[in-house]
Amino acid sequence: MTLEITLPLVRQSPHDTEGGRRDEIMYFLKLISNMTEENLKEPFLLYEHLQEISNLAEQCLIPKLDNVEEEITEWENVISLNDLEINLDKVTTALSSPALTKSLEEHELTQREKALLVNLIVLVGEHRDPDKPWTSRELIKKCDLIVMEICTLLRKSSDTVDKDRPFDVAFGYDIQTAGTPRKTIFFLCLQNLRQKLRPSTWKYFPAAVASFAWIVTQVKYPNLSEFVGDLFAPSLLLLDDYNDENKILGIALAGHGMANLNKADITRDNWGLVLYNALHGLLYDKNPNMIDSLIPLLMSVLKAIEVNPNSNSHIFTKYDETMRKMLFALDTCSETSLKYSWIIQITSYLEFLGHATLHWNNKICGSIIHFTTTTDAALWKAMLNCLQVQVKNTWLKPNSNKIAEIVLRIVLNCSVLDLPNISPEERTEIIVLCRDTMKLLEYCSDFDEVRNELEVMKQNDKLHKKFTATLRTF
Fold first, then answer.
1. What per-residue confidence (pLDDT) applies to 1?
2. Separation between Cα atoms, residue 304 and residue 306, nearest integer Å
3. What Å distances lie between residue 169 and 151, 225, 256, 464, CA to CA?
4. What pLDDT was estimated at residue 406?
5. Who has the most CB within 10 Å: 81, 142, 328, 445?
């Protein structure tokens, strides 16, 4: 078997010596062509074989960008995708050597052999997202083949590989049996990417960021507890960026950590408090997608660093500080989509807050009542669902008058106004939600006052015909 490397794969620096690179690569390719099952039994030759594969993989990594301020429109000027596809084929061919597979079946991977798989795993991580401009569907398929070969080498059957987490079992087994985190393949991958993910350099390596994000999601509870700082430090860099895509990725990575770490891991070295302060800086963001990702993560952080809000509902806690900022953000937003996202997330937060909602009873109603003049059915339904949660949490000391006023405003607007953008089915659904909200108010301690006012309104309706027949049903 004779393999040839396609050069140049990437743009060459003026200081690179093309002849020297070609001689080195061709030496290793010649070494592969002479590999047999017999001579691969020699540990040194096996290491040389893996070293060659690692070098080939390193040549396929996306290079450092020259300028991060300008958006790249032509990625062919950075890396040749055709050459990359050809070289990935050669990596797969070298990796799938039967002699290599059989030789590794006879002994555990040594530390040196694990290190040589790192470039392969980092390479695969760069080509997992089809939306990235430096990859393609064809490259992803080729990397899938490399994943299958690596899983075979790590003694995980390629038939049982999880599409989203192919290295989950292999990394977990390696972490549990390595004795120390520094001897694991996962740690070696993080160490390989560490220089690229420094505060001053990470913007120049977008592919390395994508690879890091994919690699860390391969490890789940309880195997992530030894790598808390390695996960959260790059996540904080992403959260602090001006680019929304990077912020959302940082939220996703921090969320993966929160889901796969216990409370002791999160509070160790104050990582939970650091995350809490970093996430608070994003509460005033105007991107609805950001808000939808941010609030669930913030709630999980609060669970780790603060006591249950229901057990300390008589004191002001970090839950209340968060609620204050959320309601301020709701008051200052103008776009309907952003209002909708905030009300949905506030509803979820109130369910989580429980009786501590009492601290914000008047403020919640004061914020929501301004949105009753809207003509958006989805926003009306979200407001009514929020009010129902508020009533359930505060029935002992509710704000029934204000809640009833909001409900009746929605009823009148929905019934009287000519709203072509709201279908009859949606109107019916809104009226049903209004009735349900009023029924919940009947259980509140101050509903008698509301009932008396409703009776007066009904009498006025009969006398002056100001309100619709719908109002008489309450």
1. 39
2. 6
3. 10, 16, 17, 73
4. 87
5. 142
